[in-house]
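During the second half of the funding period, the structural biology subgroup turned its attention to how the target accommodates small molecules. The most pressing case was PBG, which had performed well in the primary screen but for which no bound structure existed. We therefore specified the complex as follows and requested a full 3D prediction, including the ligand pose.
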Amino acid sequence: MVDPNFRGRRLRGSPAIRRLVRETAVSPRRLVLPLFIGPGSGRRDPVPSMPGVFRTSVDEVARDVAEAEAAGLGGVILFGIPEGKDAEGSEAWTEDGVVQRALRVLRPEVSELALITDVCLCAYTSHGQCGIIEHGRVANEPTVERLARIAVSHAAAGADIVAPSDMMDGRVRAVREALDRSGFPETPIMSYAVKYASAFYGPFRDAADSAPGSGDRKGYQMDPANAEEALREAEADLAEGADIILVKPAQGYLDIVRRVKERTGAPVAAYQVSGEYSAVMAAIKQGWLDEGAMREMIVSIRRAGADIIITYWAREFARWAG
Ligand code: PBG
């Protein structure tokens, strides 16, 4: 029964009162900024489908990370675009790969924020799939073995957290065992445990040059129609040794963020992906929406229960929130 005298508007009557009763605040320390690192030097190439996002060379990335740290962000997540690709994606784990080199440059520079790395093969393989192809299919076991190698190479170069994003089975256990064996038992795994086969990754695939040459990723990424399966994926990854569970995309999947959080109690990250970002940026450019739309999306992701939010808009949000 609702109190007949209930007057909800009393608590909305002035900015001071609204501020006092506001339930959700997003501290900049919860935000993680994705950065794309490519070959060459002196490069800062705009990504056409992602206004405000650049692909930089290793020598340029320190500037972005310094800015992220100054803005009080919690972390950056690094994506590499290699010099050359092959069927195996072998540049993903070489010591002089773009991400490994960037980590060695950045490691001594940063103190506060976390250096996170995306662990996947899709930007490194000539066919653009997230794994090794055998008999026309992405083969699970050979892929997992490569992923473990990539994760170790990132930890060795100075990553604080590794984030496998491939959706192969058993890869969290394999990455955990490889890290432990190689002297990195303290390096946490942020698992993209719940990654949907989403149409919202389009602009990212431009940025990372990682669109599959043919076919799609529905053989390993999840069906957007499924929620119970998301809970099983999250629990399986935790059992294998994941420390943080990531849900991706964010906006259409806030129910999943909430359910994973409630079910597991583990730290949950949500990734506001390229398509979510670009759609709103395009509307802002047109004058159809204003920046409040992006702020609202980010606050909503936190309200749904995400502890960590990966967003291309992290610096802008931090500037506003700070
Ligand atoms: C790599 C990966 C993808 C994203 C993050 N890691 C893309 C994909 O599966 O194609 C998407 C991020 C975004 O869209 O912003 N496997």
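Two results from this model are relevant to the next phase. The two ends are 40 Å apart (CA to CA). Residues 118, 120, 122, 130, 165-166, 201, 204-205, 210, 217, 273-274 surround PBG (CB under 6 Å).
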